[in-house]
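Methods — Computational structure assignment.
A single polypeptide chain was analysed. Its primary sequence is given first, followed by the predicted tertiary structure written as structure tokens.
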Amino acid sequence: MRRFRRLVLLLWLGVALAPMCGCHSWVVVDHAVFLSPEPPKQMRLHLAEGATIMVEGASVIGDSIHAGSETVAVDNVREVEVRRFDWGQTMGLIFVTVVPAFFVTLLALGFEMGWFPGGG
């Protein structure tokens, strides 16, 4: 029955780590996001020549976007993406992690309590 304990432990460890890889997605926004009073901390800029760069703490000065050592002309930016909370991904993540982990935990508990043949 030790194998069920390990399986349950690994499943719940996966459930605990799952939020790190889901719940947010990149969403295309208007270029005006730079002019908002509180621009997003992290943005992905898709440039006209096809390159994509990730910037943090970007601000617009004149006709250029400045973020750390990166400087990009506003006219060179084709698309701006920011990370937003995504309910669909969150519900899907819960469905594929928490629900199976709950049932496996119940199954393992059943074997430990002797509810099934060979358990106890």
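Note: The chain is about 35% helix and 30% strand.
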